[in-house]
């Protein structure tokens, strides 16, 4: 499953453009008076301005499975990586066969670089913004994550993520390429103490050649 296009909100489009263009070095492919669209590998990330928006989103980018250490060094003078424990910034998701690091963008959104070993997407080139391969996860906040997941499976032919233990608190739809991460409101976004909130989100998915447009 591929997350082709994500549309979320920002209360400062100008600062958002500067962060993604100058800090993460991603190209802005479209600018409008109240929105910008950023190309992140094979995905598109669109921010729509909402001056009173005060909440945050959580989303992740896939990077090559062998480039996490290089990615950390690339980030060092750009963003403050979130320390997990004892100065370590790497989280090992053993069941998912993946490792990740976390940081914030200018909006306070929780971003993640995740290296998934089962994608077998190693690269020889030095890490750069081109190593950001695609949007791999977007967080969706819902009172009934498991029920929402069942509805998406039934309506759109999607599948629960086979590596995840899906529950009424936390459920994931998709695969290593792209995931909808569904959580209950006020569940802290790992690894922070920031509670999740339901925010307007539009998502375009490609799944087995079929395009699915979702609104939350």
Automatic annotation (TrEMBL):
Superkingdom, taxonomy of origin: Bacteria
InterPro entries linked: Glyas_Bleomycin-R_OHBP_Dase, VOC_core
Domain VOC: 2-116
SUPFAM superfamilies, per the entry: Glyoxalase/Bleomycin resistance protein/Dihydroxybiphenyl dioxygenase (SSF54593)
Stated name of the protein: Glyoxalase
Taxon lineage: Bacteria, Pseudomonadati, Bacteroidota, Flavobacteriia, Flavobacteriales
């Amino acid at each position: 499953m591929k997350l082709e296009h994500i549309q979320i909100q920002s209360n400062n489009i100008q600062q958002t453009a500067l962060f993604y263009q100058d800090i993460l070095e991603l190209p802005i492919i479209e600018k409008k008076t109240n929105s910008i669209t950023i190309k992140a590998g094979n995905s598109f990330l669109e921010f729509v301005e909402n001056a009173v928006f005060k909440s945050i989103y959580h989303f992740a980018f896939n990077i090559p499975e062998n480039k996490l250490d290089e990615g950390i060094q690339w980030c060092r003078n750009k963003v403050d990586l979130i320390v997990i424990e004892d100065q370590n910034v790497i989280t090992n998701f053993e069941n998912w066969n993946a490792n990740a690091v976390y940081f914030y963008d200018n909006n306070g959104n929780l971003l993640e670089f995740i290296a998934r070993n089962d994608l077998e997407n190693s690269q020889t080139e030095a890490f750069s913004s081109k190593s950001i391969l695609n949007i791999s996860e977007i967080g969706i906040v819902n009172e009934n994550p498991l029920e929402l997941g069942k509805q998406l499976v039934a309506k759109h032919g999607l599948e629960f993520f086979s590596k995840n233990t899906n529950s009424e608190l936390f459920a994931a739809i998709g695969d290593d390429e792209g995931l909808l991460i569904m959580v209950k409101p006020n569940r802290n976004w790992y690894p922070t103490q920031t509670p999740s909130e339901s925010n307007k989100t539009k998502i375009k998915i490609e799944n087995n050649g079929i395009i699915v447009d979702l609104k939350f």
